[in-house]
Amino acid sequence: MAVQPIRLFGDPVLRKPALEVVDFDRELHKLVADLTDTMVEAPGAGLAAPQIGVGLRVFTWHVDGELGHLVNPRLELSEEEQHGLEGCLSIPDLSFECTRALSVVARGFDMHGEPVTVHGSDLLARAIQHETDHLDGVLFVDRLDQAARKAAMREIREAEWFGLERPTVKVSPHATRGFGL
Questions:
Q1: May I ask the CATH class of domain 12-158?
Q2: Residues 6+ apart with CB under 8 A from 106
């Protein structure tokens, strides 16, 4: 479909919890296509709808050659943890050590409204947790310990992109303006 501008740290849409999808329609199919095209072009391991300015609970992933998407995800996390570098397309060119669950079972729907269950570990588990956080208005820097978060915020404030003008929000022609009821 189309590559969309990615919202950067500081944009309020990244801090607002996304709404559940209720209409599995053509508009949702276009959103999934736009998310996929934008993620692949960036390139990234995942991209959530709020990162392109859409406040709906939808994300895509591209891990180990597998492309996928999930609508209205619910996660079950393992107790075993993994520690590793994590970055974000909304916080370009920066990465920090972040702790996540080692594996995840994600339940939700595909763009056609069919139930989907995804079992992921390692990088896929990290990507699913990271993107689901975006749907809750949480950024990975929020999950860092105090010292790492302080260093991350310093690097963000010093980044060339910090404070750049944000893209204009397009209003959906859909009766609910792209949001669920």
A1: alpha beta
A2: 70, 73, 74, 75, 76, 117, 118, 120, 128, 132
